[in-house]
Backbone:
């Protein structure tokens, strides 16, 4: 009886030990670093339970002026995949990759997107800030977001071939959701009178939205919040708001409201609320995911621009 008990115990221990590495392997997640919150959301949507995502520039954070931390360097060094926006949006990323010793594959989410070219007289370009001559805010068009998803899907599949069927299926589901949101935005814009489809925002983050949906946004700052708007630019916009009877100005979640409040005060234009441009809100906010952000923004825009004067 004793020998039998020892045999059973030995077999149980042997099976447990042999199963442990397989269980650990099954539970191990692909470590991915995303440069900012929109990309972090995309990676989570496509990666699901197979990925562990670290987002460097978190909710309501401004990637234009971000300073990486030692914790960021540690996350980069441990990552198997790094997802960046590209178009020189993350001016600090090259230095961080080098200083962290990261060996991960770097996937550029904007691959295949035709970038909007900045005007040569853009104040941001004059100030010498390094975004090149291309607008990096490509995610503001849902059609572009679909290309982001395709690039992220392919990068995850290459980094984790066993998970490719999962990533492909998740991407197919998410792309259908993006199509629905795109239709909702177009329908909302169609309800806004054509002569009221213009507004003021803090910085020039909505160029792709303008091209895709036909709402004109005018901003005192260039494509980066690094560049302070000049008094000349603010005065020009105040004159433009008055001359064109622009109905609303919008705050942004990543910028100081002072400038927009000044423009509203001096023109009588109403503050139409807050838009989310370069970052999502936290999970408890109204724009905790990309889809929630796009729906929230168009709701704010339609409320502010849709109704004419009483």
Residues:
């Amino acid at each position: 009886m004793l020998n039998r008990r020892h045999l059973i115990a030995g077999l149980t221990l042997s099976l447990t030990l042999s199963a442990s590495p397989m269980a650990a392997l099954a539970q191990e997640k692909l470590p991915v670093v995303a440069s900012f919150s929109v990309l972090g959301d995309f990676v989570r949507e496509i990666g699901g339970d197979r990925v562990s995502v670290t987002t460097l520039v978190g909710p309501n954070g401004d990637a234009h002026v971000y300073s990486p931390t030692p914790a960021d360097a540690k996350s980069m060094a441990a990552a198997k995949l790094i997802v960046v926006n590209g178009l020189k949006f993350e001016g600090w990323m090259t230095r961080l990759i080098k200083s962290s010793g990261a060996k991960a594959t770097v996937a550029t989410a904007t691959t295949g997107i035709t970038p909007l070219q900045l005007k040569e007289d853009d104040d941001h370009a004059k100030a010498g800030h390094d975004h090149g001559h291309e607008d990096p805010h490509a995610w503001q068009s849902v059609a572009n977001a679909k290309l982001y998803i395709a690039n992220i899907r392919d990068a995850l599949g290459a980094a984790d071939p066993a998970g490719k069927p999962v990533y492909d299926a998740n991407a197919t589901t998410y792309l259908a959701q993006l199509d629905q949101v795109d239709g909702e935005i177009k329908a909302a814009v169609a309800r806004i009178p054509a002569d009221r489809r213009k507004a003021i925002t803090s910085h020039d983050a909505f160029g792709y939205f303008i091209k895709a949906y036909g709402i004109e946004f005018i901003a005192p700052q260039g494509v980066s919040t690094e560049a302070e708007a000049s008094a000349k630019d603010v005065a020009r916009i105040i004159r433009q708001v008055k001359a064109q009877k622009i109905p609303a100005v919008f705050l942004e979640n990543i910028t100081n409201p002072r400038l927009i409040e000044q423009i509203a005060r001096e023109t009588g234009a109403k503050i139409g609320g807050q838009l989310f441009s370069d970052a999502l809100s936290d999970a408890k906010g109204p724009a905790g995911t990309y889809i929630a952000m796009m729906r929230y923004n168009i709701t704010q825009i339609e409320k502010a621009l849709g109704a004419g004067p009483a």
In short: Residues 7-25, 121-131 have pLDDT under 50 and may be disordered. The chain is about 50% helix and 15% strand. Residues 191-305 form a domain with the Rossmann fold fold (CATH 3.40.50.1980). The CA atoms of residues 286 and 296 lie 7 Å apart.
